[in-house]
Amino acid sequence: MAEPSFLDVQDLHVSYGPIKAVRGVSLQVAEGEAVAIVGANGAGKSTLLRALCNLLPRASGKVMFAGRSTAGVPTHLLAGREGMLLVPEDRAVLRSLTVLENLRLSHDTRPAGRSFAAANEEVFAHFPRLRTRAGQAAGNLSGGEQQMLTLARALVSPPRILLLDEPSLGLSPRLVREVYAILRDFRARGMTILLVEQNVRTALRFAHRAYVLRQGTIVQHGSGEALLADDGLFRQYLGVH
Amino acid sequence: MLTEQIVNGIVMGSLYALIAQGYTLVFGVLDKLNFAHGEIFMFGGYVAVASVAMGASIPLALLLALLACGALGLAVELVSFRKFRSHDAHITAALSSFAFGLVLLDLVQKAWGTEPVAIELPHALRIASVEFLGVRFSVVKLAILVVALVLMFALHLAIARTRLGRSIRAVAESATSAALYGINVTRVIQIVFLLASAMAGVAGAALAIRTGFAANEVGFTLGLKALAIMAIGGMGDLRGAFLGGLLIGVFEALAFQWGFGQIADTGVWLFMIFVLLVRPTGLFAARASKEARA
Ligand SMILES: Nc1ncnc2c1ncn2[C@@H]1O[C@H](COP(=O)(O)OP(=O)(O)O)[C@@H](O)[C@H]1O
Ligand SMILES: [Mg+2]
């Protein structure tokens, strides 16, 4: 690769005390690219994403985002100023705030050069269900609606990179299809996306490129299509068929 | 006579509420108690005394107490809470803030002595009163009530309607989620300490103006009572602190009126124990306590 990647992770190590959860991960994401990290439960996927947002301290390694090192940049600045939007496993919508307030906060910290009302119109056109729920506490939404709300945040204030931790977790097959339809739309708009999934096939079908993570290490990578066609991969690393 | 006592109770209750809301604001975002809060409230009274002695008007004295105590709040946050943000540092933060309060108390005693210090109000102001529905009300008391209610209403609006309020509620729910929304959690916590302590400072100054002197034991007596009121109203619940303050203020005034003032203080503490036993979320907090926060 000649020019440096948009997100460039070099030899990242992350530990929980004695437990080494991420061991020397290197990966690249280009601007506008959709990249998946697949791996079994406990492979270190969530740890990796949390470390990218500086929610966890890194033991060693280097992370460059848009040409700048993220070392020492606090999470809120990565999220706001730098536009690194992480949607964690538990979704982490603000349950005690209303749907509208959740969107409003995203707009507050990272206004996308237009009024909140204008941003909202776009959101509600995409997510009509959220319009009817606008005044309700986000904690009262169903799991699927909460996932829609997290995606809606990405519309209100488009991130420079969207990090998704298992967006299909706990959702019905129908909702998973809905979520990925929206992600495909984001991808088509040129949004840069890095997502981690246990739901391997869905993720590989979605991503331009993918990495396979096993016990904290990247064991393989390639285009989504190539990995999807690799039966050995599924048997060897992912424990699925 | 009864009406007057009830008004007295409401005035005192509004001061309790002002202090209790400070405890509850901090508790809401940190799940920790600021044990320096009572002494910061106490200090507000001395700021008022000193300001008036140097020729400041009453409104200016209140403003100076607000600023000085707000600054103290920032200091408490920095030294007693900043390092102890994690959930297993409750005791450390409690001890540290308690010590902060004791140091403040000691400094006040060194500077002003242990006896109450009189505040020199113009005689005309002291006796000024208005008549309403056949009852005379002291202008000073009414002004204090108005100031307290305005401050608490402004806080309510700020929490419910503004960007800062949304950020405070976000941090109260989850500091991690708030950071992922781009909120500077440390900044929000600082602002919460600033607001809480500024309100306590105004309460301390108002109390000194109302009673005519600043006393250094009020941090322990009234400051701790406000802590009980916070628990009675529901920890982390602003409305609960407000209603609890008024309830206890009126209860005490009536206790004095009916001749059992001696047991009013104990009554408040017994009441808190009782409330915690039968309704640990407090009398006024909404059922889903997380939602009622802030
Ligand atoms: N808070 C934690 N403390 C200690 N170990 C953890 C913690 N979170 C995760 N781990 C461990 O780190 C490894 C990677 O976990 P995680 O990143 O959650 O994996 P994944 O998201 O791929 O399922 C696992 O062995 C897990 O047990
Ligand atoms: Mg995970």
Tags for this model:
heterodimer; A: 241 residues; alpha/beta; Rossmann fold; 2 domains; 6-stranded mixed beta sheet; 4-stranded antiparallel beta sheet; 10 strands; globular; B: 294 residues; mainly alpha; two-stranded antiparallel ribbon; 13 helices; 75% helix; disordered C terminus; binds adenosine-5'-diphosphate; binds magnesium ion
Topology:
The complex is a heterodimer of chains A (241) and B (294).
Chain A: E1 7-16, E2 19-29, E3 34-38, H1 45-52, E4 60-65, E5 68-69, H2 75-79, E6 84-87, H3 99-109, H4 116-126, H5 128-132, H6 143-156, E7 161-165, H7 173-188, E8 193-197, H8 200-206, E9 209-214, E10 217-223, H9 224-228, H10 231-238
Chain B: H1 2-30, H2 37-53, H3 58-81, H4 90-112, E1 117-118, H5 123-127, E2 129-132, E3 135-138, H6 139-161, H7 163-173, H8 175-180, H9 185-211, E4 213-214, H10 218-233, H11 238-257, H12 264-278, H13 289-292
Antiparallel strand pairs in B: 1-4, 2-3
Helix pairs in contact in B: 1-6, 1-9, 1-10, 1-11, 2-3, 2-4, 2-9, 2-10, 3-4, 3-9, 6-7, 6-9, 7-9, 10-11, 10-12
